[in-house]
TrEMBL record:
<feature type="transmembrane region" description="Helical">
    <location>
        <begin position="261"/>
        <end position="283"/>
    </location>
</feature>
<feature type="transmembrane region" description="Helical">
    <location>
        <begin position="163"/>
        <end position="186"/>
    </location>
</feature>
<feature type="transmembrane region" description="Helical">
    <location>
        <begin position="192"/>
        <end position="212"/>
    </location>
</feature>
<keyword id="KW-0472">Membrane</keyword>
<feature type="transmembrane region" description="Helical">
    <location>
        <begin position="102"/>
        <end position="123"/>
    </location>
</feature>
<feature type="transmembrane region" description="Helical">
    <location>
        <begin position="75"/>
        <end position="95"/>
    </location>
</feature>
<keyword id="KW-0812">Transmembrane</keyword>
<feature type="transmembrane region" description="Helical">
    <location>
        <begin position="21"/>
        <end position="40"/>
    </location>
</feature>
<feature type="transmembrane region" description="Helical">
    <location>
        <begin position="129"/>
        <end position="151"/>
    </location>
</feature>
<keyword id="KW-1133">Transmembrane helix</keyword>
<feature type="transmembrane region" description="Helical">
    <location>
        <begin position="232"/>
        <end position="249"/>
    </location>
</feature>
<dbReference type="InterPro" id="IPR035952">
    <property type="entry name" value="Rhomboid-like_sf"/>
</dbReference>
<protein>
    <recommendedName>
        <fullName>Rhomboid family protein</fullName>
    </recommendedName>
</protein>
<dbReference type="GO" id="GO:0016020">
    <property type="term" value="C:membrane"/>
</dbReference>
Amino acid sequence: MSVYTRIRDARSRVNLRLFTFYLAIVLIIPAITTLIEYLVTVNPGLRADLRIDMQNFHLYQVFTSSFVHLNFDHFLANVTAYLLIAVYGLVLATLVNRKRLYLVASKIIVVIFVLFGAAFAIFNATTTYYAGLSGIDSALAGLLLLFWLLYLEHTAKQRMRHYYGLILFFILALSAGIVARYILLYHAGRNALLLSLLVFFVVLGALCVFYYRDQFFDLYRVLGEFSWSSRIITVAIIAIFAFFVWNLFPERLANLSVTAGIPLHLAGIVIGILAGYFLFAYLEGFAYFSDEKEVISR
């Protein structure tokens, strides 16, 4: 069979129109963010007005602050990370036929984190600003972990969504990565608190691997049984998370005398996971989420 024939057969099995519809919904957030970035580029004074600033606070900033960035580099890094995380999540949701559940859960989590991030800035006396999509990216990264487990469960045909050891390890690995990136960017290698926090996450991660080693052995075993395409889809989450962590604090922000909040991003990951589990438990019982048309015909 020729390559052209294989591509044609694959396209005939995929409902591109239906997938494009769901993809368009996923792209609403970056579209809003891009529009706001264009407006603040045309009128630079809007940038300070739209982000939460406790020295000049307005109620609308609660809703606009997550979509305005401190500069173009900040915008580009956050939107790119969002696209990688959200589109990868949609692909996993499509493969397990849980597209509606993913879209509803992701949008609810976005709203939750917009309000949480604003409250974090308002009630944290040491924080004078809050801006950017990175907090939402963190929350969606947490949700992505759950759909990653659903994909493993679906492909391996064994129950794996409650493999909390894998979830905990990824939380600790992401946390260690965020702290390490912060230390590198802001040259905080002599900060005892940050170094202690980094060691804490690394040690806990190692203990997690040891304690839940059966789950990691299961993961290794099922990966060996996957096709090459399924293996690539599975391990792609590592590259996406690496990009997310490395670009969480863009280089040029270090020159703005602005310190990005580590706790806010760590909280985002936890919020995404907890909200995701709650929404799974509540929404999966509805026929609307369990009976939907498949994008890929079997």
